Amino acid sequence: MAAPLGRTYLTFKLSFPKKLLKLNKETCRYSLQINQTLIRNYSQKYDSSLFATVKKNWKTGVCIAVTTSVFATGYLRSRQSYADTEARPVSRHVKGVVDIGNQKFTLYQFQSCPYCCKVRAALDYFGFTYDVVEVNSVTKAQMKFSEYKKVPVLMVDGKMGDKDFTLQFNDSSAIVSVLGSFVYDQQTPLHKLHTYYPVIKEKQGRKTVWDFPNKYFIMFGENIEDSRSEKQRREERKWRKWTDDILMHTISPNVYRTPSESLEAFHHFSEWGEWDKNFSTVSRLGVVYIGAFVMYFIGKLVKRRHNIKDNPRESLYDACDAWMNAVGENKFLGVDRPNLADLSVYGALHSFEGCQAHTDLMSIHKVKDWYQRMEQQINGHQGAFLLEELPTKRHIKK
Q1: How far, in Å, are 99, 289, 299 from residue 270 at the CA level?
Q2: For residues 372 and 378, is the Cβ–Cβ distance under 8 A?
Q3: pLDDT tens digits for 384-396?
Q4: Which of 2, 241, 326, 329 is least surrounded by Cβ atoms within 10 Å, i.e. has the fewest?
């Protein structure tokens, strides 16, 4: 008869590579906490065959505990060793076509994060030049400078007169609104637009909740009016919110539907985000394997919480049906050119391009034609031509 799997006992005994790895007492304590929390949380939340097997088979439990101990140790060691080198490195430079003077945009992101993809879609569509900093999703060493630890974060460094300034924009929807405002209102500088998007912070226990009340609104300065009708503006806000509230929640249950799809997705994300160039080998492998393992279960949690269908593909296809019904016979929701809702939906769908879920969607759904039109608009920086149609201080580079 197999020995009972007591989680505390198991994780303590198998987190004992203190002697083998010659780690100090404090590091081992954190290693114990990490792998103990992993097993406890997931075994409580999910009645999965994996943990049913673990409870019956101590050998399987040994493998899981050793794995979590090794990765926890690697995580702590890499966090200490690479904190300085991964502080704020630029992963790549994206060249645009719009002259924004002596201002510099830097986007802190996860390459495959759908919220970050929304922001990149807007930056590329409007033709802005920007730097990308790929954030390690395990250590988040690149975000040490920021109290707000989520991505995306858009930093703007510039000069106003003789004074330097740095602005930080948080939340993907708020950032997209700022970029839209910056294009449509050519007379209001970014440091003033920054004040139009206040942040409300609320402490709930040990957790800080951030709220951005104006995040779906394009803001204009004095004597500037939005030429669109109120109905068009309402539709844009409605579908941007729908993207965050509905479409986003269909992604993880589809991308991480099975353990093999989850691992395949993370290998793809590693190549897409050039993690081998941006992170140490230990960090990269930790993100790939721990990430694939954790996101498989998070996908299951999201599926339950948001009432995703048993076959998550059906919920994804239903969401795309709703979107295409809203677009109707037009090229875009913005009719002849994409609006901010088009950019948001494209960013969400683009986030898992290269994964099986995306291949399945494009092979059978009519959203493909709209998606390809959006791709052409974004890659061609077609939003930059708005600058030629509006009174502007910003110009397209020749």
Answers
A1: 32, 11, 19
A2: no
A3: 987 666 554 455 5
A4: 329
